[in-house]
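thought: user wants a sequence for this fold. calling inverse folding tool.
action: design(structure=
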């Protein structure tokens, strides 16, 4: 017994958990939390809603996207990463597809319980998750479209879902939606950081990630501009909205990112992971500061 299966033909829980990739759940859960903060609704009496929404953002919708991606990448992974759950046989047969479908249905059921706009946001997010990986759309083959889909799902829709859930499923106000959209746009650049590690493989497989299609140096500059410009707009909007303290905080966090971007641009393939570890946390802290700035009185 190697402990990898409960019995022949059925995956072990550990293999299923690996397929769902818990390490990827943090970004949408954080964005959902920013939406909760922006709502201004006191958590007292709403803890159940908040925790259910966090479950929806990470272990359900985001996990679904990971299962879908691994199923449709199983042939490529069999060559490049044969240790992953599906190509290794630890998730045998069509169990990978079954898990992706089951998690899609479970996600929609939970979203429906949280209100109309939460359900619609989850529905759009799941549709993009399938379109990102599954043919014929397979958005991941194009760095512009694929990264846009990921940025929207991981940041904007999760933020909107958090705000809408706390409002009982109602549509969030314009200021919150604008911030969610801007941070979604900036996340496009964050998604590009993940592609520097696989330039050679992407080129061989015909995947037009930005580093593969534009070259490392140009893609890095594009990513930096895409990350920085929306944050600059956020700073300007917060000033206009009469929130100078939060605007100053976001500006300082952006300045810190710019300093690190200069180092990243010297050698993007070698320093993309470094920037992800030290620059991106400043980005998400700015999200939280912005959420407090538009927080409605509770």
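)
observation: tool returned 298 residues.
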């Amino acid at each position: 017994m190697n402990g990898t299966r409960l019995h022949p033909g059925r995956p072990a829980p550990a293999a299923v958990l690996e397929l769902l990739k818990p390490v990827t759940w943090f970004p949408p859960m954080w964005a959902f939390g920013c939406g909760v903060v922006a709502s201004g609704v006191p958590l007292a009496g709403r803890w159940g809603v908040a925790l259910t929404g966090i479950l929806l953002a990470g272990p359900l919708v985001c996990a679904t996207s990971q299962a879908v991606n691994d199923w449709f990448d199983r042939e490529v992974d069999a060559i490049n990463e044969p240790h992953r759950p599906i190509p290794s046989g630890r998730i045998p047969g069509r169990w990978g597809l079954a898990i992706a479908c089951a998690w899609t249905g479970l996600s929609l059921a939970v979203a429906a319980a949280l209100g109309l706009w939460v359900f619609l946001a989850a529905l759009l997010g799941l549709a993009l998750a399938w379109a990102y990986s599954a043919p014929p759309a397979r958005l991941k083959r194009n760095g512009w479209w694929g990264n846009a889909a990921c940025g929207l799902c991981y940041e904007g829709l999760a933020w909107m879902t958090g705000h809408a859930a706390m409002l009982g499923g109602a549509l969030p106000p314009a200021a919150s939606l604008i911030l969610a959209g801007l941070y979604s746009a900036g996340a496009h650049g964050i998604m590009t950081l993940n592609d520097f590690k696989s330039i050679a493989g992407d080129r061989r497989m015909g995947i037009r990630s930005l580093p593969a299609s534009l070259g490392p140096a140009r893609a890095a500059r594009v990513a930096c501009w895409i990350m920085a410009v929306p944050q600059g707009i956020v700073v300007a909007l917060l000033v206009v909205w009469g929130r100078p303290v939060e605007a100053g905080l976001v500006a300082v966090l952006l300045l810190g990112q710019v300093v690190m971007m200069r180092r990243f641009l010297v050698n993007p393939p070698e320093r993309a992971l470094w920037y992800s570890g030290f620059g991106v946390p400043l980005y998400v802290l700015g999200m939280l500061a912005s959420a407090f700035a538009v927080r409605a009185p509770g």
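thought: summarizing for user.
answer: Here is the designed sequence. The mean pLDDT is 92.
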